[in-house]
Design a protein that fits this description.
With 125 residues, the chain is mostly helical. The chain is rod-shaped. It has one domain.
Length: 125
């Protein structure tokens, strides 16, 4: 049951969260519209609109909208993640280049100090 319930819930949610389901619910709701109108009672008509049509049809439409929004958000997150990874790789490359340049500067500085000591040794004071 631990696996079945989530599996069934996901299947139902995926089925209800479609525009085809919204169209089906609208068709089902419209079946009772003539009776609601024939009653002539405004309470019955308002109840039909609120309880039958809106609840049935908007349920699926809202779920479709949430699915679309969720997909857009997921795409944005994936794009941001990819861009962040690319920037991180660029930063790593820049750091490696800076470390290499620093090592070269240290080597040059070492060579310059060595030359200065040699010059001082040849020409004291």
């Amino acid at each position: 049951m631990k696996r079945f319930n989530p599996w069934l819930a996901e299947r139902i949610t995926n089925g209800v969260a479609t525009m085809w389901c919204a169209y089906l619910f609208a068709a089902i709701a419209l079946i009772s519209l003539p009776k609601a109108i024939q009653s002539g009672d405004s309470i019955v008509i308002v109840s039909w609109v609120a309880q039958t049509f809106l609840q049935l049809v908007l349920l699926s439409i809202i779920m479709v909208g949430q699915k679309v929004q969720s997909q857009k958000l997921e795409n944005t997150i994936n794009e941001t993640h990819a861009a962040s990874l690319a920037e991180f790789e660029l930063a790593k490359e820049a750091r490696a280049l800076a470390n290499q340049e620093l090592a070269e500067l240290h080597a040059l500085s070492h060579d310059m100090h060595k030359l200065l000591k040699e010059v001082e040794a040849k020409f004291p004071g």
